[in-house]
Design brief:
Number of strands: 13
CATH topology: 2-enoyl-CoA Hydratase, Chain A, domain 1
Distance between the termini: 27 Å
Order of helices and strands: HEEEEHEEHEHEEHHHEHEHEHE
Radius of gyration: 22 Å
Largest sheet: 9 strands, mixed
Structural class: alpha/beta
CATH class: Alpha Beta
Number of helices: 10
Shape: elongated
Number of domains: 1
CATH architecture: Alpha-Beta Complex
CATH superfamily: 2-enoyl-CoA Hydratase, Chain A, domain 1
């Protein structure tokens, strides 16, 4: 039994070492400028356009691997959304933007950056922005949707998960059994707070809890602005970290409607600020760095390559080597 314990611990430590030390990077081969592609309609049918922007996977401001150990890097979701909104702001034919959101959330800062960029875009462009929730639009994904003018969920959407997380593990007891001790040298008692080979002190726990609660209150303040009809007392009851179905979210006031892609287009044309230049159905477009012309809305992805690497898939738990906070729905 003791031998098996030692073997398991060595395996975990080996994976941790590899995940931190093994990194192979290749140049990004994508085109430097995204091109507009058509989903439906044609320029001869309507002069107006509605832009689709996919926000998929975990929200981060870090560059992402395309999913393999030997893959190159691609722009972060934050960078990609910023690029697309900047292009849309310069296009007079774009009358509205739909965010196709399928994300469990992500880092606090990345979620807030996208929220901020949407608000800035609306100031410059003065067109409506609609959130279209797909499978999952939780935590940070819900946070950024507060900058939009209407939230529509798919009938099977999971949303909510309003709250803040800091991921971490502690292996002190396991290492003690192997006779491995921490030799960290620090300038003060709280300098190495969160070290996975040392126990949290009550003071250190309070440091993190205070910061987490501060960001939680910020989350609530963002929802208050985005959902002004929602009473604060009701919001605090809803914001305990739980997830909601589309029907539950609609009943509680967390979203505005439930429907499909076609419904979102109709809803967009009814929003205040939508200024059509003709009575014809608007063209639906998106920006892409790659790939052939899509045949329909469901083939559009974020092109960020946000899937897990091989090493990340092997790990039985999430490793957080820094003190990053997350607006994220995760069972881990």
């Amino acid at each position: 039994m003791k031998f098996l314990l030692h073997k398991s611990l060595l395996f975990v430590l080996g994976i941790l070492f590899l995940s931190q030390c093994l990194f192979i990077s290749f140049p990004n081969q994508t085109s430097p400028v995204p091109k507009e592609k058509l989903v439906t309609g044609s320029s001869t049918e309507s002069p107006d356009k509605i832009l689709l922007i996919p926000i998929e996977g975990e929200i981060s401001s870090e560059k992402k691997s395309s999913g393999g150990l030997l893959s190159g890097e691609k722009d972060s979701i934050v960078s990609r959304v910023k690029t697309y909104l900047s292009m849309a702001a310069r296009d007079p034919e774009i009358k509205g933007v739909i965010l196709k959101i399928d994300s469990p959330g992500g880092s606090v800062t990345a979620s807030d950056l996208i929220h901020h960029e949407i608000l800035e875009f609306k100031k410059k462009k003065n067109v409506p922005v609609l959130s279209l929730f797909m499978d999952t639009a939780a935590s940070g994904a819900y946070y950024l949707s507060m900058a939009t003018d209407h939230i529509q969920a798919h009938p099977t959407t999971i949303t909510g998960s309003i709250g803040v997380l800091r991921f971490g593990i502690n292996v002190k007891e396991a290492l003690d059994k192997l006779g491995i001790k921490s030799s960290t040298i620090r300038s003060g008692p709280n300098k190495a707070t969160g070290n996975p080979v040392e126990e949290f002190t009550p003071e250190q726990k309070k440091v993190f809890q205070d910061i987490i609660m501060e960001n939680y209150e910020r989350f609530l303040s963002i929802i208050k602005k985005g959902r002004p009809k929602l009473k604060e007392s009701d919001l605090r009851k809803l914001a305990d970290g739980r997830i909601y179905s589309a029907n539950q979210a609609l009943e509680t006031g967390l979203i505005d409607s439930i429907g499909y892609f076609e419904d979102a287009i109709v809803q967009m044309t009814k929003l205040p600020g939508y200024k059509a230049s003709s009575s014809q159905t608007p063209r639906i477009v998106f920006y892409s760095y790659k790939g052939p012309q899509p045949e329909n809305f469901y083939q559009i992805d974020s092109n960020t390559g946000a899937g897990p690497t091989i090493l990340e898939s092997l790990l039985p738990f999430r490793i957080s080597p820094d003190h990053k906070l997350h607006y994220l729905f995760s069972p881990e």
